[in-house]
Amino acid sequence: MEFKDKFIRRYEKLTDIKEFKKYSLKEERKSIRVNTLKTTIPRIKKTFQLKQIPWIKEGFWIKGKQIGNTLEHFLGYIYIQEAASMIPPLVLNPNKEDIILDMCASPGSKTTQLAALMHNKGLIIANDVAYQRSKPLTINLQRCGVLNTLITLRHGRFFNQKFDKILVDAPCSGTGTIRKSIKTINMWNPNTIKKLAGVQKQLLYTAFECLKPKGTLVYSTCSLEPHENEAVIDALLKRYDNVKIEEIKLKINRSPAILKFEDQEFDPEIEKCLRIWPQDNDTDGFFVAKISKS
User: Which residue in the list 104, 144, 210, 222 is annotated as catalytic?
Assistant: First the structure.
């Protein structure tokens, strides 16, 4: 599979392009999260050959094919989830008393993880924009035994309620997930990036306005585009004077945030955000920002 020339010219300014291509075209590394609402880690360790993911105690890389056809998967004892995808709920760090908005919830990977971290207490509003997207979300919540979650269908920008914590795992170009979806190489288009960035900013602005004072907001994408990541956070910092970017402390290899790209320079506070390239941990690429409101 060949990368577009424009893509190569763009990304060689951001990272080691040879390493990026090598890891982006590798076979996907299978991983699971143990669903502690239904089972225990020792029980699953007896069943599968597992290797611990350093940044999450419930997460493991797993050997073997057809994991989705196992009894443990059907019963909701395990959730097949990419290792980097497990980071945003950890960063949000929910507790049993929180009222949480998961603004872009389908298919439910992070929603079910939040529910497990909350021990099925508190309340999660799991929202998505379309009825068709609610179907896998509903199935996964039921399969995993989630009881503390309500599903809503609405455009994220129309929320005006207040929440203790909010997760915005935003729709994005997915350039960090090429190994999982090779078609991303052909679909990549700079004009699409600009359109997505507009949607992402709107979602993040709405989320910040819905966040209670001293609350926590996590913004994440599986994109590696600065315009979808650092530029979105920079726009939030410029729009509101009560935004604070928090450090993300995880046992994980990371790359520096992008503070200058093309004709833009971004706020130095963005250094605190987490940028992961596929070659950093042999995972999908991801961007995560932890935001608080004073």
Answer: 222
pTM, 2 dp: 0.97
Q: Is 222 a catalytic residue?
A: yes
Average pLDDT over residues 81-91: 98
The answer as to whether 57 is a domain residue is no
246 has pLDDT over 90: yes
- Give pLDDT, residue 78: 98
Q: What is the pLDDT of residue 281?
A: 98
**CA-CA distance, 247 to 286, in Å (whole number)?**
16
- Confidence at residue 65, expressed as pLDDT on a 0 to 100 scale: 76
pLDDT at 69 over 80: yes
Does residue 30 lie within any of the structural domains?
no
CATH number at residue 242: 3.40.50.150
Domain total of the chain:
1
Whether residue 107 has a cis bond before it, omega within 30° of 0: yes
